[in-house]
Amino acid sequence: MGILLAKFAATGALASFINYGVFLALVNRLFTPVIADMIAYASGVAVNFVLHRRFLFEMKRSLLFTFVWYMLASAGGLALSAGLTYLLIKIPFFAAFPAIMKLCTMGIVFFYNFFSKRFAFEKRFMS
User: Fold this and answer.
1) Which residues have a Cβ under 8 Å from the Cβ of 67 and sit 6 or more positions away?
2) Which of 37, 58, 95, 117 is the most buried (most CB within 10 A)?
3) C-alpha 18: how far from chain center
C-alpha cells in the first residue's frame, strides 16, 4: 500500500497545486475563503479523476458507476474541506494567513480522499 499511497500523493500534488492556485487567485479578491475553497476544491477533483483513472487505480466498476462514487466521495471531501475552512478561518492566525490555513485543510483531507477514492475505483479500502 505504501507505493500506492506515494503514487496517490504524486497525482494529488498536481491536483493540489491547481486547487491551491485557484484558491489563492480567488480568495478575498472575488470570493470569501469558504466559496473560494469550494471552487478550488472542485477544480482539483476534476484533474484528480482523470489522473486516478489513467495512472493510479484499476477500475473494477463501470466508468459511470466509478464516476458517481468518485463524485460522492469528492462531495464528502468538499464538505470536510469547507467545514475545516469555516472553523479554522475563525482563528486569528489563520484569518491573517489563509494560505497556511488552506495547506492545513489539504493535509487533513488527503487521507479521507485516498481511502474514499480507492473504494470508488477498486471496491476496497485497505490492502
Assistant:
1) 49
2) 37
3) 10
